[in-house]
Amino acid sequence: MQQETIWNSEAARRYDTPGAGMFAPELLEPTVERLARLAGGGAALEFAIGTGRVAVPLSERGVSVAGVELSLPMVEQLRTKADEATIPVVIGDMATADVPGEYALVYLVYNTISNLLTQDEQVQCFRNAARHLTPGGRFVIELWVPELRKLPPGQTATVWQAEPGYIGLDTYDVLRQHVVSHHFHFDETEQARLFRSPHRYIWPAELDLMAQLAGFELESRHADWVGTEFTAESRSHVSVYRIPPVS
Ligand SMILES: C[S@@+](CC[C@H](N)C(=O)[O-])C[C@H]1O[C@@H](n2cnc3c(N)ncnc32)[C@H](O)[C@@H]1O
Fold first, then answer.
1. Arithmetic mean of pLDDT, 196-217
2. Ligand 1 site, CB within 6 A
3. pLDDT value at position 1?
4. pTM (whole model) above 0.85
């Protein structure tokens, strides 16, 4: 499963759900608010900008935003909301792409660092973020905590969400540290629509080590965008890494 195949025209067409799901104001508004504060008046760069779910409202909030994105159909969807002059996007891989400009903030949200399927690529991604930041600049990652405690020995799949019309199922390859998320959408008919995406899951401690290899220090980690304490029960985290300012 290649990322370009997964994020095709069909996925791009279905991605935006204004006001609901990942576009719900109670999730998106604190995300934008926190990122705007972390940018501190400087420019921001979003790795894997997608259809601009976060970038568009952040830009409307007055932050200068640029992006990197692998999928043309996702960027075409973004272009229905913001033009190239407002949010410039480089088509490429966030682990290696070079974006003109200097940034106070690079951010990579919605679990997307896990779309890079090897540890090497994930470390490269941190290094690429560092390359784009000015001293004192920040790299923000939003990532889920691997649900390995749900996986008894010998079992290779977990259901992480089950509700009317939707089942989310993960299958694990613990040797390679890979998980494939299966999203089943269904109605009264016998047909279900399946969206699958492969990930390399990362424990927070490994993420911190990747950051360290790229010259970052962990500045803060919370369970969400409004600053809830991160605990052993947290299902997700927002981690802020910083390049030490020049003294
Ligand atoms: C879950 S979406 C997130 C989009 C957006 N950041 C958001 O929060 O809505 C994942 C996006 O990552 C992009 N992507 C996956 N691998 C990538 C890579 N190596 N470099 C750049 N973009 C990538 C996909 O094309 C897709 O648009």
1. 97
2. 3, 7, 48-50, 53-54, 68-71, 74, 93-95, 109-110, 112, 115-116
3. 67
4. yes
